[in-house]
Amino acid sequence: MIYRTQLIYIKEGQEIIFDEFEEIAIPIIRKYNGELILRVRPDKTSLIEGTAELPYEIHLVSFPTQIDCDNFSMDEERKKFLHLKENSIEEAVLYQGKRI
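Given the sequence above, the corresponding structure tokens read:
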């Protein structure tokens, strides 16, 4: 099982464009046997401690295999709308790992 955690930082005022991309991309996860385990919008009250800027959203997604994960990334329908992601995201940090 592959787990991907992504910290997403949005360009100011581009939340609606980001949400448009997510409406397309999230259902495609299931097409490749993936599962959106968590989609969280943290606020300042949820931060206990840390040096990083608080992201707009945190996503935790799982895929049974690396091939499923790669196929999701290369999905042609998703790629048609990557411009929405590129126009709305300032930065994204991706952590990939496995359950221990």
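The first strand starts at residue 2 and ends at 10. Try to locate this feature in the token string yourself.
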